[in-house]
Write a structure and sequence with these properties.
The protein has 159 residues and is an alpha+beta fold. The chain contains three helices and eight strands; from the N terminus they run αββββαββββα. 21% of the residues lie in helices and 36% in strands. A hairpin with a 5-residue loop joins β2 and β3. The longest helix is centred in the middle third of the chain and has 13 residues.
């Protein structure tokens, strides 16, 4: 994921200390029920589509923008399927971030899936019963997006 310019500006004064950031994940389905994935440039692994909203950008608008920027697929956000604080991540340069992820179920409405930026080396549609190897983040979000259950959140910390 490319680092947005506004985060680079914060890093200039904050150094490597933990930044608490919004994160957006878009689980995009086509009319055949297939899910859109990208093979990341940095890890070469298949992943769900996502990114960081720009200051003032609405979460659903970010999901739609990220999908188009990365895959050239046009979509609409249908509903929030998950809200979850992620564990902190330390990047190779020493920067530490922790993301509050909001995951949207999205429906493709146009465009042909292709690599559309430098964040992916490949993009493709997959049948949900024939997904490539994904991390737990991706598989859990796809499962939640496929169900009609209410928005998932971790209720174990409430008393």
């Amino acid at each position: 994921m490319a680092t947005p310019e506004f985060i680079r500006a914060v890093r200039a004064s904050a150094g490597h200390q933990l930044l608490w950031l919004p994160g957006i994940t878009a689980i995009v389905f086509d009319d055949d029920g297939r899910v859109l994935l990208g093979r990341r440039t940095d890890t070469r692994r298949w992943s769900v589509i996502g990114g960081i909203p720009e200051p003032g950008e609405q979460p659903a608008a970010c999901a739609v923008r990220e999908v188009f920027e990365e895959t050239a697929v046009r979509c609409v956000a249908e509903r929030v399927v998950l809200v979850q604080a992620q564990d902190p991540v330390t990047y190779p340069n020493g920067d530490v971030c922790q993301y509050m992820d909001i995951t949207f179920r999205c429906r493709a409405v146009g465009g042909a899936a292709r690599v559309n930026d430098d964040e992916s080396v490949e993009v493709a549609w997959f049948d949900v019963d024939a997904l490539p190897e994904l991390n737990e983040h991706g598989t859990f979000r796809i499962k939640q997006a496929m169900s009609d259950v209410p928005t998932w959140f971790d209720a174990t910390t409430f008393s």
